[in-house]
Amino acid sequence: MSSMHPRRNARKGVLEALFAQQFSEEKPKLVLERILNSKPDRKKNSEFIHLLFFCVMDNIQWADELIKSHLQNWEFDRVAKIDRLLLRMGICEIFFINEIPPKVSISEMVEISKVYSTDESPSFINGVLDAVYKDYQLKEDS
User: Is the residue at 47 inside a domain?
Assistant: First the structure.
């Protein structure tokens, strides 16, 4: 059994479900259930997985606008699909899941990108999420 943190495993499940959803005509709930059933060890984190998955699904347009506003010299359409999903997940954790410190969310998305995306992705994701978080802090303080 791997010593991966249960939340990281849960996030990977959310990433898989979001990725599958992009190519599926099925209802998001069915796609998510299939991903959960494919790895029974994720069941114990199903509450967090459901929360994050549906948070992203419900806020895609808003998160994408936030991402676009923080891309410097880069076109949104050129951002790798996996990176877009990780950015959406990180943004949803930062803004909507208060029990997770934003720095943890950013770090987790960076770590997951090292496994699933390109060599440039970790620093790219870190940069965008860090900028989003700084803006979030300014809004919180004002």
Answer: yes
67-113 residue pLDDT tens: 999 998 889 999 999 999 999 999 999 999 999 999 999 999 999 99
Residue 132 DSSP SS3 = helix
Rounded-to-10 torsion of CA 20, 25, 31, 35 = -40
pTM attached to this predicted model: 0.93
Among 116, 89, 121, which Cα is nearest to 104's?
89
20 token code pair: 């599958």
Tokens of 56: 């992203």
CB-CB neighbours of 131 under 10 Å: 16
CATH number reported for the structural domain that contains residue 77 in this entry: 1.10.940.10
